[in-house]
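Workshop exercise sheet. Pairs work together: one partner reads the sequence aloud, the other fills in the structure field after running the prediction. Swap roles for the next sheet.
Pair: D.N. / O.F.
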Amino acid sequence: RGMYYGSYAFMETWNIGVVLLFAVMATAFMGYVLPWGQMSFWGATVITNLLSAIPYIGTTLVEWIWGGFSVDKATLTRFFAFHFILPFIIAALVIVHLLFLHETGSNNPTGLNSDADKIPFHPYYTIKDILGIFIMIMFLMTLVLFFPDLLGDPDNYTPANPLNTPPHIKPEWYFLFAYAILRSIPNKLGGVLALVLSIIILALLPLLHTS
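Structure field:
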């Protein structure tokens, strides 16, 4: 939608948005490998091992990230630390993102000035937002405190076995655009480059805009 309506014209806002996308994907990956079951063990090994495609330093880099010669407790500890720290970085980036957005105002599908549609922030938006946040927090607290396993997967409790490919690999992962790009290219380095570039290409849009 942002590409269609030319939102990339707001260069700073757009580029911080691309960085935010990377940060959110990184946080999600760290969280995905944290339940110390078979699937997470496999996911952490496969995805971090992609860095070994980097010429010369690849293998050393992978062992440095793992903290050993395979995914183990050291890897889990550092992933947990990153999974905790990254959301704070995301929160800071969101504030900067909104700061730049506030400079220009948002875009809209008509391409016209939005000033005529604006209403005072207080009390309208403050009341709406406080109510919305309260309802969301109550819902999340209920879910976390009373039904912590409701959205989980029982397979996460299967002890990790490094000698086996997991019997319960989730096929929906293969529908993700980035993973589909990665696996559809037979060359390892080519696949990794295509995966990264599939997101970085968004940062090129402001530079390619000519009108």
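Discussion prompt: Residues 67 and 73 are 9 Å apart (CA to CA). What would you look at next?
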